[in-house]
Amino acid sequence: MSRTNAHPTRPRRALAVASALLLGVTTALTASAPATAADERVDNPYVGADVYVNPIWSANAAAEPGGEAVADQPTGVWLDRISAIEGNDSPTTGDMGLRDHLDEAVAQAAGEPLVFQLVVYNLPGRDCAALASNGELGPEEIDRYESEYIDPIADILSDYEDTSLRIVTTIELDSLPNLITNVSPRNTATPECDVMLANGNYVNGVGYALSRLGAIDNVYNYVDAGHHGWIGWEDNFAASAALFHEAANANGATPDDVHGFISNTANYSALKEEHFAIGETINGTPVRQSSWVDWNNYVDELSFAQALRVELVSQGFDPGIGMLIDTSRNGWGGPDRPVSAGPTTDVDAYVDGGRFDRRIQYGNWCNQAGAGLGERPTTAPEPGIDAYVWMKPPGESDGSSTEIPNDEGKGFDRMCDPTYEGNPRNNHNMSGALPDAPVSGHWFSAQFQELLANAHPPVQ
Ligand code: BGC
């Protein structure tokens, strides 16, 4: 498929080429520079490239009944702790370190362009509004984040600068949006997010990651942008974009270090709701006022991601930025998927009867019952969207349903407990989580089976 809004070449590159021409070094350039992707950042790294298949995830998927059908799909490689860089043999990341993955990626690439998807996820005071992935670094440990986590990653990636790999990094999911929605004086505030806002370590950590990784020619940084059920409201949307811009100017970063943004990472928000829309009115009540939509300006990820792109550009990001959407678990297929709109008797019946996303409330985020695999990874599926990706490896848990002691920095969040009755962040609804889940990142066979059964598009 093709995109209609072709992006201009990155300005930095255009400048470099222009000055090379002025200096009359064209011949030298063409003679010495091999025609690999590493020499020039392309507009959309996914175009004309394969995407890395993580052998560890692939083997887990293939070992499940029916899993072979998706086991060759590309998924993100998560560096969720410092020790994951070298490889720590944990049930989460397995025995491959970053270098092992990159060597395997070079082999898979066989000299052709190949996207390698890396999830950078280890901020100080990580996941300040939840406990399931609250991490190994304390709120003040920004120095360790920089010197023991980002610097070694940057050093290793630099060794692969002159390969045909295009390294897509997604930067610190759930961090910056937490500083908008989960801080005082909102009733959704947590003390931990108040601390991370006050000490500046999310903003400075993201800035550092962007600047160090963005200095590597074949790295494409995508900043995490939550999802529509988080920052799609008026008072969160523009404020989040402004904060992303602040982080992109912090600690050595510039907006040029940002190639784009990713939405819905490890979340369940539907890609396209087809049976109701913002702007419709049912029996005198706007869809926005249904209890499901609850005054949000978006009903799905595609419309949200496209609108956020425009907002980000208006706030100072390059007009060439592109969006990624994580579609690993937002399919919501299977026998319960509505085939038409709900009845028009009242707005709630209409929206609830027609919606694909069958969560109890869209603030629910942990191991959601009824979810299915979403769109398979796809390049440039829609205007402004660089790719649909499976950044969260489907089948890996979001968090344990009961407390399980571990040495991975994983707490117990009751949003992963199916008996939990909720908190202000999901408007006091049941959690909707599957029972018997292992700690986050560990293989959750029952969830994988359900994702397969409820896949949409269905798995053939
Ligand atoms: C976990 C990570 C894991 C990732 C991907 C996160 O929720 O905290 O340890 O690598 O999910 O499954």
From TrEMBL:
The keyword Signal applies. GO terms for molecular function: hydrolase activity. Residues 1-37 form the signal peptide. Gene3D superfamilies: 1, 4-beta cellobiohydrolase. Pfam families: Glyco_hydro_6. It comes from the Bacteria. Keywords: Carbohydrate metabolism, Cellulose degradation, Disulfide bond, Glycosidase, Hydrolase, Polysaccharide degradation, Signal. Its EC number is 3.2.1.-. The active site is at D127. The keyword Ribosomal protein does not apply. Belongs to the glycosyl hydrolase family 6. This is Glucanase. It comes from Nocardiopsis alba.
